[in-house]
Amino acid sequence: MSVRVRVAPSPTGDPHVGTAYMSLFNLAFARQQGGEFLLRVEDTDRARFRADSEQQVYDMLRWLGLDWDEGPDKGGPRGPYRQSERLETYRPHVEQLIADGHAYLCWCSGARLAEMREDQQKRKLPTGYDRRCVGLDRAARAALPGFSDPPVVRMFVPDDPPLRFHDLVRGEVSAPRPDDQVLLKADGFPTYHLAVVVDDHLMGITHVVRGEEWISSTPKHLLLFDWLGWDRPAFAHMPLLRNIDKSKISKRKNPAARLTWFVEQGYLPEALLNFLGLLGYSLPGEQEIFTFEQMSQSFDWARVNTVGPVFDLDKLAWLNGHYMRELSEPDFAGRTLPFLQGAGLVGDPASPVELAALAAVVPLVQTRVAVLSEVPALVRFLFTPEESFQVESGAVEKALTPANAPVLAAAAEALDGLQDWTGVSVQARIDAALLEGGLGLKRGKAYLPLRAAVCGASISPPLPESMALLGRERTLCRLRAGAALAADRETAERGPGVG
RNA sequence: GUCCCCAUCGUCCAGCGGCCCAGGACUCCACCCUUUCAAGGUGGCUACGCGGGUUCGAAUCCCGUUGGGGGCACCA
């Protein structure tokens, strides 16, 4: 029998990083086994449902390269793959469970249930449904308080349900005894527990790979598989991704819980994927940089960790930097473009001039950023027209001091007649004028004001090369403007309040 | 509270009874390189939670304890 696995996100908001994590492991295993990976949308919670969420899940998973073989958008032999479209599929199985005495109707209202739980807690009794409705028909129950009309269907858990099962990553596991879980809600929608079991069986799922949070409800699923006379799938409960404080990763505490965040920040999908693979998993030989194919080929459940890993952005940043440095220059430029457009530095669509400038500056910044969103700040100097060019205030304070005005002027003068406008020549001229033999400055000291004037910041790509890209006229313009600004500050410092 | 899961450097991993007075990576620190910032190179700090067993021998097995996490919904 061929391996079939699935990922089952519920469209309740921004796609969650956990969905990508589960998809990665499911897919890695499926590909290794030559099996299928399906995407099933679990939209049975109409209160939390969000219409745009499903498409976002598709987009994010595809962005990561985690494509599926069957799903709502591409169909397949075992569809539909959206649970809201399978309501009629669940019904007969519920009928059967009721007929077999494994499930029963329950008319208890939400208020009564809440009251019951409160009472149980106060009296330190075990929690769980008290079976108020067992053996009662509608009329009999309606005579009692806490009645609510469309009833739900609950499973009738026996005294000795199966609590132990084999887990691919944890070995023999035991879980708590379930209470009489609701299977069918009053609105006619199934709960997760009914839907997973029915769908996993009908869709031929052989391995249920999901988060550790599901361990405690697995006995409910075991019971259902058994009652319905179906083979149990194999289970693999993955560790949960954690926040810094070790709690289950959440959108509230961690921006990285939302997949869109990585796109916005300019992480590379290959880096994120590699990083996700590193969490809770290791390749033989301590190899840390690996592709999906490498992970998939050597995939082994025994190498999956049981410990919930903290989602460490530092390491992701390093990995991302690594992958960015591996990119060819045109590739890097292409990935950078949307960020420059977003920052308003480049038009949409980009002009040939802008694209040429981008191609030229890329070698200067590729090793200097951890994420793509950092690129605009570094190349702003090149894409800003002289009319709107401004030096950052911090750089003005630090570098455009009155004492540096002559340095800027000298640099402008030295470069004025230079014909061979290349980084090498520019540097030679500047050095001759400002270092030993000229003004006698150290290079670091000499370049500080020039950098501020030309690049507008105290951190920039290498200076002579930046000037070379900017061109002579623009460079001279900025040097002179910088010199004037620096000199002006002298006046300003001497003159406040004077005149 | 209760049930369940888990436990090696700050973080992510290696280790699956002797090769480990514990190895790699990230972070951090120092140095080198250097026009800033990076990148790159070299070196360094830091861990088997604790207590009992088992064994000739334990990070590795068992028990307890402590700590962390998760579940206990007409949410998934």
Tell me the layout of helices and strands.
Blueprint: E1 4-7, H1 17-33, E2 36-39, H2 53-63, H3 87-99, E3 103-108, H4 110-122, H5 138-142, E4 147-155, E5 164-167, E6 171-174, E7 182-184, H6 192-202, E8 207-211, H7 218-227, E9 234-238, H8 259-265, H9 269-278, H10 292-297, H11 313-326, H12 329-342, H13 352-365, H14 375-383, H15 393-399, H16 405-416, H17 423-434, H18 443-455, H19 463-470, H20 472-494
Parallel strand pairs: 1-2, 8-9
Antiparallel strand pairs: 3-4, 4-7, 5-6
Helix pairs in contact: 6-7, 9-11, 12-13, 13-14, 15-18, 16-17, 16-18, 16-20, 17-19, 18-20
The chain binds one RNA strand of 76 nucleotides through helix 4, strand 4, helix 6, helix 11 and helix 17.
